[in-house]
Design brief:
nine-stranded mixed sheet; single chain; Alpha-Beta Plaits; 6 helices; 17 strands; Structural Genomics Hypothetical 15.5 Kd Protein In mrcA-pckA Intergenic Region, Chain A; four-stranded antiparallel sheet; alpha+beta
Length: 281
């Protein structure tokens, strides 16, 4: 059983918020009966769902890895008509969206899927899913600079820090770094390094959790295989388990509040393709 708005969203009808609007306005029927209960749960196999009397079938969940070139953007809707990452998957019938955005000037690994639950787990900083980048910066960052990235750099929207940083090699007057992040603030790497006086010349994401870019050619896409999906789901499950254990430890230290549900941080339930301007890089 799953909520009706979730079923409709996964079927490609629209965001959950939009699907709630359809339900509330009486445009959705289950087994021929009009419904307006926003909390209604259905069995996708046993129940027949229609919107404006048009049958709705659940989309097959699909998972793709894409090597985004510089110049492509990660929104599904661009009035300016710029090249979109979604344009690299013209053969995919499902309505997919990007997991982990990259700005127009960055390149590398994107995950694209219509699985909203997995996408949110991968994107939300609460779960701490690591994303690895190779970054070419102007100048030669020293040990103090790398330590500042690890300790945290104050930006206009708060303090951000890298999980790990390693100097790889010099290239003329520039330096290649390997940076791992677990957050997703807008243009985070570029802003952190600019604050330290090192402009980012090139930025390429090479991994999201256990999914690697490897030798995927620029501008091409491939299906994420079953072994990778098992590893990815284990990765997400492990992160959720760590969060739950941390919550239990907190409750054990505060017996006066035992049994009181912890306050959860704000969680944006919108589909990832509607979170404009949140580029990880």
């Amino acid at each position: 059983m799953e909520r009706l708005n979730k079923f409709l969203a996964h079927a490609g009808v629209g965001s959950r918020r939009f699907c709630d609007t359809l339900i509330a306005s009486g445009r959705v029927k289950v087994d021929g009966v009009r419904v307006v209960d926003l909390g209604l749960k259905i069995d996708p196999v046993a129940h027949q769902v229609a919107v404006d009397d048009q049958p709705v079938k659940a989309e097959k969940l699909v998972y793709w890895a894409v090597n985004k070139p510089v110049g492509h953007i990660c929104t599904n809707d661009d009035p300016a008509g710029r090249p979109r990452a979604i344009d690299l998957l013209p053969h995919v019938e499902q309505r997919v969206y990007t997991v982990g955005r990259l700005d127009e000037g960055s390149e590398g690994l994107l995950l694209m899927t219509n699985d909203g639950d997995l996408a949110m787990s991968l994107m939300h900083p609460r779960y701490g899913i690591p994303k690895m980048y190779f970054v070419l910066v102007a100048g030669k960052p020293g040990p103090d600079d790398l330590q500042k990235l690890l300790d945290g750099v104050w930006l206009s929207d708060g303090k951000v820090k890298a999980r790990s940083v390693k100097r790889l090699k010099a290239q003329g007057n520039s330096t290649w770094l390997r940076v791992v992040l677990t957050e997703g603030k807008n243009r985070e790497i570029r802003r952190m390094l600019a604050k330290l006086g090192h402009k980012v010349m090139k930025l390429r994401r090479v991994a999201i959790g256990p999914i690697k870019l490897d030798k995927l050619p620029k501008g091409k896409a491939r299906r994420i295989n079953e072994t990778e999906m098992v590893d990815l789901r284990k990765f997400v499950a492990s992160s959720k388990e760590k969060i739950e254990k941390a919550r239990l430890r907190i409750n054990e230290k505060r017996p006066d509040q035992a049994g009181t549900p912890p306050r959860k941080p704000p969680f944006d339930r919108r589909r990832p393709d509607r979170t404009e301007g949140r580029d990880d890089s």
